[in-house]
């Protein structure tokens, strides 16, 4: 079954969010390369002492797996963009693969939350490019959930409740609360 117009809209949202995240993570990688060449480089994403990519990119948290986190984001957003474009232009993605994309998006949502926690409470700075990446991740999570939830085999009662959650927009509200919690943490800690 090919995607209907609502599904195509969700795939379009995934694609656009992935492009935003891909551009931001690519730019973040370029900034990291600049720092590696010259540790005293003035980065274009350094706005002030709070929004300081230099502080964040020089910290060990920005290379958790031994390479810059932004490289991992480039891979995630590239893979997600390809899936989004496939669905947007009428391709069918089997539900098992959509679940895998959802799992990846959830991993990045958790990883991003941890990274922002580290940035706010340990590094006392935020990377503006990381904010764009995380906004993309949260939006992608909303869209994957809306694409996937009907294919998960739940009892009729739970399925009806999930339908109400989606119709009311409570799922979007949840991801908005995740974003708002980061904003509030940053305001309270970094002001």
Topology:
Layout: H1 5-37, H2 53-57, H3 69-88, H4 95-123, H5 128-148, H6 156-168, H7 170-190
What would you say this structure looks like, in words?
The chain is an all-alpha fold. The protein has a single domain (5-190), classed as de novo design (two linked rop proteins). 74% of the residues lie in helices and 0% in strands. The chain contains seven helices and no strands. It has helices at residues 5-37, 53-57, 69-88, 95-123, 128-148, 156-168, 170-190. α1 (5-37) packs antiparallel against α3, α4 runs parallel beside α7 and α5 (128-148) runs antiparallel to α7 (170-190). The model has no long low-confidence stretch (mean pLDDT 92).
Describe, in short, the structure shown.
The protein has 191 residues and is an all-alpha fold. Helix content is 74%, strand content 0%. The chain has 7 helices and no strands.
Q: What proportion strand?
A: under 5%
**Gross geometry:** globular
Uncertain segments:
none
CATH-assigned fold name:
de novo design (two linked rop proteins)
Supply the number of structural domains. Answer: 1
CATH level-two architecture: Up-down Bundle
What is the chains' assembly state? Answer: single chain
Gap between N and C termini: 51 Å
Largest sheet: none
Q: How many DSSP helices?
A: 7
Radius of gyration: 18 Å
Q: How many β-strands, per DSSP?
A: 0
Mean pLDDT rating: 92
């Amino acid at each position: 079954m090919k995607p209907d117009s609502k599904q195509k809209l969700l795939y379009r949202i995934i694609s656009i969010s992935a492009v935003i995240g891909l551009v931001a993570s690519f730019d973040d990688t370029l900034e990291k390369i600049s720092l590696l060449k010259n540790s005293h480089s003035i980065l274009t994403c350094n706005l002030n002492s709070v929004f300081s990519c230099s502080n964040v990119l020089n910290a060990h948290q920005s290379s958790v797996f031994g390479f810059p986190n932004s490289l991992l984001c480039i891979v995630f957003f590239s893979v997600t963009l390809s899936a989004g474009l496939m669905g947007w232009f009428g391709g069918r993605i089997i539900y098992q693969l959509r679940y895998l994309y959802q799992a990846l998006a959830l991993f990045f949502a958790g990883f991003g939350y941890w990274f922002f926690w580290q940035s706010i409470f340990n590094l006392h700075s935020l990377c503006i490019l990381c904010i764009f990446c995380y906004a993309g991740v949260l939006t992608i999570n909303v869209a994957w959930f809306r694409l996937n939830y009907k294919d998960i085999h739940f009892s009729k009662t739970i399925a009806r409740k999930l339908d109400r959650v989606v119709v009311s927009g409570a799922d979007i509200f949840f991801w908005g609360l995740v974003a708002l919690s980061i904003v509030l943490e940053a305001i309270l800690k970094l002001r």
